Amino acid sequence: MIFEDLVDKGLQKLNTVAGITEGELFFEETTTWELELEKQIESLKNAKRIGIGARVIVDGRKVGFYSSTVNTPDDIEHIINIAYKIAKAQKEDPDWVSLPKNIGQARVEGIFDKKLANVSVDDLMQLSHEYRDRISEFKDIYPSRSNIEIDRCKVGIVTTYGAELIKEETGLVAWLRMVAKKGAKKASGDEYWISRRWDAPIEWLIGEAARKAVLALKAKKIQSAKMKVIWKNSFATEVLNTMLSRSISAESVQKGRSPLAGKIGEKIASDIFTIIDEGLRKWGIGTSPFDDEGVPQQNMVIFEKGVLKNFVYDSYTAHKEEKESTGNAARGYTSLPHPAPHNLVLKRGRYKLETLISNVEKGILIEDAIGTWLSNPISGEINATITHGQLIENGELTKSVKGVIIRGNWFDIIKNGIEMIGNDVRAGINVYSPSILISEMTIAGK
Amino acid sequence: MEDILERIINLALDMDVEYADVRYQRFSSNLIIADNGKISFYESNTLQGIGLRVFKYGGWGFSSTTDFDSDSIKRMVKNAVSISEAVGSSAKRKRSEIVDVKTVHAKEKVSVKVDPMDIPPEEKIELILTANKNAMISEHIKNSYSRLGDFRDTRLFMNSEGSKIEVDVTMVGFMQMSVAKKNGELERVYSNKSYTKGFEFFKEIDASDFAIKISELALSAVNTQHAKPGEYPVVLDPKIIGLFVHEAMGHATEGDLISNNESILANKLNKQIGSELVTIVDDGRIEGGYFVPYDDEGVKKVRTITVENGILKAFLTSRETAYLLEMSPSGNGRAQNYENLPIVRQTNYFIEPRDFSFEELIEDIKEGYYIKGEGAGGGQVDVGQGTFTFQTGPSYIIRNGELGEMVRGTIISGDILTTLKSIDGVGKDFHISTSIFGGCGKQGQSVKVGDGGPHVRVSKMVIGGR
Description:
By secondary structure, chain A is α+β, with helices and mostly antiparallel strands. Chain A has helices at about 5-15, 75-90, 115, 120-135, 200-220, 235-245, 250-255, 315-320, 355-360, 410-415; strands at about 20-35, 40-60, 60-70, 140-145, 145-160, 165-180, 185-195, 225-230, 275-280, 300-305, 305-310, 330, 340, 345, 360-370, 380-395, 395-400, 405-410, 420, 425, 430-435, 435-445. Chain B is of the alpha+beta class. Chain B contains ten helices and 27 strands. Chain B has helices spanning about 1-15, 70-90, 120-135, 200-205, 205-220, 240-250, 255-260, 320-325, 360-365, 415-420; strands at about 20-35, 40-55, 60-65, 105-110, 140-160, 165-180, 185-195, 225, 230-235, 280, 305-310, 310, 335, 345, 350, 365-370, 380, 385-390, 395-400, 400-410, 410-415, 425, 430-435, 440, 445, 450-455, 455-465. In chain B, helix 3 (about 120-135) packs parallel to helix 5 (about 205-220). Chains A and B meet through strand 2, strand 3, helix 2 and helix 4 of A and strand 2, strand 3, helix 2 and helix 3 of B. Strand 2 of chain A pairs parallel with strand 3 (about 60-65) of chain B.
């Protein structure tokens, strides 16, 4: 099956189905390589999947959705028919207006890497040999289960409004764990890399994971106290994702699940706090010429100098407020779209991480924590258990810390608590962030 | 489809592989959600594909596709073989490290009277909406949330040793969550009823009655007290016992965790690890559970007694872990779908019943708790350290051998082996359950499992409240 032919065929079929008000087909072809490593290569898998999500609207406002893998081009008709039957059975959705009509493509750079797209078994074996050689250099530090996944993905969107869009993207996620042992004591360290290119820095990943494992092995609890903390970039991306990704979605706002509802134009954070959803960021993980409904992506300010400026919309949530989609529809072929940010970027500051550290008399540098996602984005209560942290005394890293809980309120922190922002921007899930120095958080330890 | 799979095996054999197995799967599912009287979600999906696993030069190769045209099939075979060659050159294994099993020709099917795929969407919407609305039994029920799910999973397995196995499972289920709010306090209670059979299930159970029962439970629990934290004798119901044996014991007996030395049960074979009353079984075909007559390596799922009268007797194995542990393969090599490699998984895990009646279990308890799983569940287990924590549903105080008031928000925790040794009464009742709405996750794969047992008394268990 040739993907482009399949998309063409989909458009033809969609236009010949009788009795539908509107229709949309979302095509996805994914080729995946998944490499699992431990002491050596554990497994290597390859998968190719082609799927279609069909959204069909009948009787004006009844929406039906069905998704399926495509095994032969003839499946398309059947898929549309089932979506039609489901649509017929639905009740009318009073909020339904239409599928998006502002279809198009923005100019973007860096969503497709040829090397990654054509990665071979030999390339992956070479990578695993490099890994094997690197880990053998360590003493008393052992590799645990690690994983590298490479995706090549084609997306096609056609609608009864004549849209026919196709794009091709690549992505790589590497996740690595090392375990340090001393006597009966064991501790682990993780490191990850997310990219659109063939650039996984194996040596750095292993080095960082090993460094963290050793840190954790020596780590202890400290006395409970209030003190300064630095969210290292990796941890900062996690906090920002938990606190913002859902709160700035128009769906959360409309359903009353966002603390930011009704606060557009209000100053919520300090001047230093500027966040842009960079849908067009060069080589950005969430960068794309169009979103998952075919609406052009854009760079959009979310917070400007502390003032809340915009929420992210897909077409359904936008139409509810008589607006246009902001190009933030997200989905896989098996589900309906929902609004989500692409690349949330916290504006970088001027300082190196070392400078942030040297400005702390007493505090903690937080590298990794568990349970961050259990923090409450509605009340703003941040709660996480530090697994990899370092005590800072008189501007220097002194001891490693783990097992203590940090607490603080997100809204207080962004309003009054950000002292300095670093220049060391790093990619996390949906978020790019530098390290951040916070004036005070509560540490619950011994 | 058999022709295509046979062609794939032959293509692989032409490329000099030592072993090949190929799995075809067609999985169709529907999930409908009703929230406070409205349909909020209707997802219907079909997944159909082929996965090929080959062994050559001492390495495994795996590739899968949904594209059934002959070029794509050839590419899949080529990918699988070149992976196995490359992996084999780097991490050599011997063919003998995959334990031999009998060649099987079999066709197994869950008995279905009404195929859920034949039920029109209108009828399903009507069923769930009626139950969802009926569950709003009082102004204090602030949220009624229901799910209706069904699927049909057809799997065809063939290998280069001549086996050919088809397994066809149909499953349906209904889930209700009700939130009660009274005097400023909230209580959320949820439960599901799932079964491996057709849509006739909804003639046997009334979804509305079930949903109403959950709302009633939420209402009666909302203003009750919390348990007094401490150590008590407890009686656990089949639902919480199921959760306990699956999470705390089942995972610890998985062969890969044993061979990697990640489980507390490694090196404990043939040792007394629990009270003599405890016999624990993993069985792929038992009333109320999920249906696993064969695993995804073409091995018949045997009834595995992992613990017999308190003595650890066996582990759950795949063909490879069976070799490493010098055991016979138990048929526990399962894959989430055709796109995944089989790994060691449980099927239906339970404690065998004995002869105590419920009254006999509670009559000697002066002060303790009757812990129920219905309404909650979920928790965390550290298989390496052997500790567990579970959230329970609305439960009861036991006072002087009789059930007292209801308590809520109870947490039980403890050490797995200490708890197994503290079991001093096992009931004669027996109940196994499974769920269409969840699964057991391991290494990124989710599979359906079942669990349960009789009522069980534990002489000492840590109870946490608030």
